[in-house]
Specification:
The complex is a heterotrimer.
Chain A (H helix, E strand, L loop, with lengths): L8 H22 L16 H8 L1 H31 L7 H9 L6 H14 L6 H25 L3 H9 L4 H29 L3 H6 L7 H8 L6 H28 L1
Chain B lengths: L1 H13 L12 E7 L5 H11 L2 E7 L2 H9 L7 E2 L3 H9 L3 E2 L28 E14 L13 H4 L9 E3 L3 H12 L8 H14 L3 E4 L4 H6 L5 E5 H10 L3 E4 L5 E11 L5 H11 L2 H11 L2 E2 L9 H4 L14 E3 L5 H15 L1
Parallel strand pairs in B: 1-2, 1-3, 6-7, 6-8, 10-12
Antiparallel strand pairs in B: 4-10, 5-8, 5-9, 5-10, 5-11
Helix pairs in contact in B: 6-7, 7-13
Chain C lengths: L5 H29 L3 E2 L5 E2 L7 H4 L3 E3 L5 E3 L1 H33 L3 H12 L6 H12 L4 H9 L11 H25 L4 H8 L4 H30 L2 H5 L8 H9 L5 H32 L1
Antiparallel strand pairs in C: 1-2, 3-4
Helix pairs in contact in C: 3-7, 3-9, 7-9, 11-12
The chains are: A mainly alpha, B alpha/beta, C mainly alpha.
Chain lengths: ~260, ~350, ~300
């Protein structure tokens, strides 16, 4: 029965999980460090969490990041969902269309970011969240598209056909049959797109305007002074928020299923 | 609040486009180096003037100019360093603020009143200044003291090998090497470039790393014994670890002067002028130094914290003044040579 | 429903296609043009300069300090180092990702979902923050370093500021992009096939090479693309964990758009890198069709 349990897979997996979590634990622990020097431990303190509450730059940056990532995640997922549905059956040039949709994965980001800035300036778009959202949607599309496509491939088309035989119209079929079946893929795609946008520095940096600094932009430009416990503290808060979000979305996904 | 009206009136006097001013929104878009301005001081400015400041951060002059050049930045006040200002003026990125006519300009130290990069202070007003020198931990150094020379950094004593960090910024490192070798900092000569390259290549194995990030941590935690470093960062490290010392190298100590300026297209030019004038008031200028440990360009000694008055890295002893060397703007040919040195060093 | 009409398909695929073409394709076109121009006097691009391939030839031939034009191995060595690092990262990710994916697929349904979560959660923190956490873990007076020195008998171990540190950081950054695609392949697999193989007398090694590896192959290929390509362009890890001593392609491109202020040259390097990636992708596609033809 246990053929999947080849020797050592369990041990290696546990080691990998430790490897993945050690840095997370370190950053959480150091967010409670009283010493401003991130690498020197002195004593436990909640000061940095208090400092975040009164530091408008960090607060605004975090808020901007969450707004941007949510908008980019939803936008990219909707576009990717439509595209994946449209790509279900084979047609001439499908490979080329697929390659274009996945192109953002393979381009050096700084080049696209600087060129997008030039493009937006040329057509008169003001820098700020309104410029960052479409740019983020563009490079998040493949991250949302790939999981949805994978889910669609594993789906049984006879269910949709059965629904139509029962005189359900297209919309009802989509809402009652296709969407629930696709839901895990949609959630996975949204999650990947959201995380990708949340961690983006280059595009955000070049396209940001007054007041639209995101958390990665804040952290990257603050790094001259060093990673402060303040940054560790905000990372810890983000981690907690993300765990809460992921767990909720997973539970929701389960319920839909 | 009371001098605000007077100030606004005096600004009106030399503003060409005064008409739109009355309706200007009480907002200021401030684009500054991150962690280079105390948040409490912004709160004070907001309370005194009623102007809300929205601050965003960048990490180098190059990235600031990249955004301005592409036309992608609608900020009111920016903080460029001396050596990029002449180019920015030529490229038409800045608009005049006539700082010399502002009411608080009287407090500016003489040395900063008429700088070579902006004669007559038409486009810029002084903010902070500092130098790039050498920080060392006297507890880790044989004899506890090092010479005032770049030689300790480029040709270190054997005990310090592997315990030294250099700034990961090509222009800074190449400039320091040129000063040590007595060569022009923006040399266009292949021979000079070859000499600089040879010096840096020989130094590389003795370095622990090249890095311009988290420098304060690195010195304060004792991870390195010597660091090619800015004066203010050294002062902050000294605050945590009191054996940290600073060297103003005698062959020439590169100096940088940061300034306030207003980019073309600033949406709130009047608020920018109010802010820039407000920042030249001694009390406010001193608050910056007290918080970020870089000297300011205003006669403000009476407001300085005692801990900085004694720190050589913040309060430069006057006898070092003739060691200061301003950073020059390199021609494209000199820049190509610098790129070549830097890429080969790390290639 | 089964056959989508071309009109409907265009309506569905069109928006995404348009967004990518306008916001990725047009900028790419701008950059390809920029790569043919000269650098601006202060920064950016000299739009009036005559287009030429100078930025491309510079990658291979360069004027030496003594004025002679010579073959310049600098950029090639940076490229070679990046490719080598990216390949090593990919190989290690396969080595770790395959057992983890196998283990995940052996769990119960609920535990599997939890495992997917566990693997993605660390990546909700910022890239820089993660790299700095590694700096704290690997530093000289840290626990890991001291343990390593106690165990390793041949002199002091330096864990930071070398290629090994860069590898640790790169593998950390990209491991989930390998684990998840391989796992996705296993999830659909009917494990009774493997049991049948056992019943027919196959030993563990044969089961591994004949069943599991071919089964994992599509996931490994997808994962390798998601790991290899981004590591080739990464710039943060080499600067932080590598101590900035040697450049990767990502750092070189970054440098041109930053300190060196040479956008056209940066654009040229990017175009070359893009072409190389296309070659790799085409190679993979070719290999795939050959494999399928064999079957």
């Amino acid at each position: 029965m246990n053929l999947r349990r080849l020797p050592l897979t369990r041990e290696i997996s546990l080691a990998v999980l430790v490897y993945l979590y050690v840095p997370v634990v370190v950053l959480i622990v150091y967010s409670f460090n009283a010493n401003r020097t991130a690498t020197v431990w002195s004593e436990t303190s909640l000061d940095w969490y208090r400092k975040i509450l009164v530091n408008p730059s960090i607060r605004d940056a975090t808020w901007n990041s969450l707004v941007l990532a949510t908008a980019a995640g939803i936008g990219a997922t909707l576009l990717a969902l439509a595209a994946a549905l449209g790509m279900k059956s084979g047609f001439r040039g499908k490979g080329a269309v697929e390659a274009v949709l996945n192109a953002p994965l393979i381009l050096p980001e700084v080049v696209v970011a600087v060129a997008t800035l030039m493009l937006f300036v040329a057509i008169g778009i003001d820098m700020g969240l309104a410029a960052m959202i479409p740019a983020h949607i563009a490079f998040c599309i493949p991250f949302a598209y790939l999981p949805i496509k994978a889910r669609l491939q594993g789906m049984n088309p006879s269910l949709e056909e059965a629904a139509q035989d029962l005189y359900a119209n297209r919309f009802v079929t989509f809402r009652r049959v296709t969407l629930p079946l696709l839901w895990p893929g949609i959630m996975a795609g949204f999650t990947l797109a959201f995380v990708t946008s949340l961690d983006d520095f280059l595009t955000s940096f070049f396209l940001s305007g007054p007041g639209s600094t995101t958390l990665p932009v804040y952290i990257f430009s603050a790094i001259r002074a060093g990673i402060t416990p303040e940054i560790n503290a905000i990372s810890t808060i983000m981690l907690i928020v993300s765990v809460a979000l992921v767990v909720t979305s997973f539970l929701l996904g389960k319920m839909r299923r | 609040m009371k001098w605000n009206g007077f100030l606004t009136a005096s600004i009106l006097a030399f503003t060409v486009a005064g008409a739109a001013m009355a309706e200007e929104e009480k907002v200021l878009y401030f684009y500054n180096w991150t962690d280079y301005y105390p948040p409490e001081l912004l709160a004070k400015f907001e309370a005194e003037t009623g102007i809300k400041v929205i601050q965003d951060g960048y990490d180098s002059n190059e990235t600031l100019i990249a955004k301005l050049q592409a036309g992608g930045a609608a900020y009111d006040v920016i903080v460029p360093t001396d050596y990029v200002i002449a180019g920015m003026i030529t490229d038409g990125l800045l608009q005049p603020i006539n700082a010399a006519e502002m009411s608080n300009f009287q407090y500016v130290k003489d040395a900063f009143k008429d700088p070579e990069f902006d004669p007559g202070r038409i486009y810029t007003a002084p903010y902070t200044w500092g130098v790039t020198g050498i920080a060392y931990d006297s507890a880790q150094v044989p004899g506890g003291k090092l010479d005032d020379s770049w030689s300790v950094f480029f040709e270190p004593p054997p005990e310090l090998e592997g315990k030294i960090a250099a700034l990961d910024i090509g222009s800074e490192l190449i400039q320091a090497a040129a000063l040590y070798l007595g060569l022009p900092q923006c040399t266009e000569s292949n021979d000079d470039a070859a000499k600089i390259y040879a010096l840096l290549e020989a130094q590389k194995p003795k370095l622990k790393m090249y890095s311009a990030d988290s420098t304060v941590d690195r010195m304060a935690s004792g991870e390195v014994a010597m660091h090619h470093l800015w004066s203010g960062a050294t002062a902050r490290a000294h605050e945590i670890k009191d054996t940290v010392r600073f060297i103003y190298p005698s062959e020439g100590t590169p100096m940088f002067r940061d300034n306030f300026a207003m980019p073309v297209g600033a949406p709130h030019p009047e608020n920018a002028r109010i802010f820039i004038n407000w920042m030249m008031a001694p009390e406010n200028a001193a608050a910056v130094t007290n918080a970020i440990a870089y000297a300011n360009s205003i006669e403000s000694a009476e407001f300085l914290d005692d801990k900085w008055k004694d720190a050589e890295s913040v309060n430069m002893p006057p006898e070092f003044a003739d060691r200061l060397v301003p950073t020059e703007v390199c021609s494209p040919a000199a820049q190509e040579l610098r790129d070549k040195i830097w890429t080969r060093l790390k290639g | 429903m089964s056959a989508t009409s071309p009109f409907r398909r265009a309506g569905l695929v069109g928006p995404a296609l348009l967004v990518v073409l306008v916001l990725i394709g047009v900028p790419l076109g701008i950059m390809a043009w920029v790569s043919l121009l000269g650098r601006g006097a202060t920064i950016g691009v000299d739009w009036t300069s005559a287009p030429s391939f100078a930025n491309y030839t510079k990658l291979v031939w360069e004027e030496d300090f003594d004025g002679t034009l010579l073959f310049n191995p600098t950029y090639l060595s940076i490229l070679w180092r990046s490719v080598w690092q990216a390949a090593a990262t990919t190989a290690i990710c396969v080595g770790l990702g395959l057992p983890v994916a196998l283990w995940m697929s052996s769990l119960s349904r609920g535990a599997r979902d939890m495992a997917v979560l566990l693997i993605t959660i660390p990546f909700w923190t910022n890239l820089l923050v993660r790299n700095y956490a590694w700096l704290i873990i690997l530093r000289e007076d840290g626990l890991v370093s001291q343990t390593a020195n106690a165990i390793w008998p041949f002199g002091p171990v330096q864990l930071l500021y070398n290629d090994a540190a860069i590898l640790i950081g790169l593998v950390y950054s990209f491991l989930p992009f390998m684990i998840l695609p391989i796992y996705a392949g296993f999830e659909k697999f009917d494990w009774r096939l493997l049991e049948a193989a056992y019943d027919l007398g196959a030993n563990r090694r044969r089961a591994l090479t004949r069943v599991i590896v071919p089964l994992a192959m599509p996931g490994i290929i997808a994962g390798s693309m998601l790991v290899f390509i981004p590591s080739l362009g990464s710039f943060v890890t080499a600067a932080i964990l590598g101590g900035g001593k040697s450049m990767m392609m990502g750092n070189l491109i970054q440098l041109q758009f930053g300190q060196s202020r040479n956008w056209p040259f940066g654009a040229a390097i990017s175009v070359v890198l893009l072409a190389l990636m296309m070659l790799v992708l085409m190679g993979i596609a070719l290999w795939k069709t050959r494999q399928e033809a064999k079957r």
